[in-house]
Amino acid sequence: xxxxxxxxxxxxxxxxxxxISIQLEHLDYTVLTDEKWLIFILNQLINNSIxxxxxxxxxQKICLKAHVEGQRVILQVYDNGIGxxxxxxxxxxxxxxTGENGRNYRRSTGMGLYIVxxxxxxxxxxxxxxxxxxxxxxxxxxxxxxxxxxxxx
Length: 153
Prior knowledge:
The protein is of the alpha+beta class. Helices cover 33% and strands 26% of the residues. The chain has helices at residues 2-10, 12-17, 35-51, 99-104, 112-123, and strands at 20-25, 60-69, 72-79, 126-132, 136-144. It has a five-stranded mixed beta sheet with strand order 1-2-3-5-4.
C-alpha cells in the first residue's frame, strides 16, 4: 500500500487538473519483488491510464485494487479510458507496438508495456491485459505473497 500511494502521490496534480478520480482498494499486502522496478511498473501503468483517459466521459477514473488468491497477490490497475481495439490487445506487450491508440491519440514509442512485461518476467510476476474499445483497460499483475514478518528476523 505504501508503495502504491507513493507512486499515486506523484500524479496528484495531474489527477486534479484532468478531473480523474483515483481509487485505492485493499492494497495492504506484502509481496516478494524489487521495490524500484515495481515503482517503474506502476508509474508506467498509471501514466498510460492518464494518457489514454477519455475526456468525453463525465467521470474519469483509475482504480488500483488487490486481493489474494492462494499464495498469490493479484493487483489490478483499471481505468475507464478509451480502451484498446480488440486486435491490438494481444500485441500490447510487443516491442515497438504502438497500436491504433498510440498512433492516433498520443505519440508513443511502444516500449513502455514491453519493458513492463520484460521486468515482470524477470521478477517472476505474471502480467496480462484486457481491454474493450471505448470502455476500459485493466492490467493485472500477479505476485508471490510474502507471509514473512521482516521485523522479527
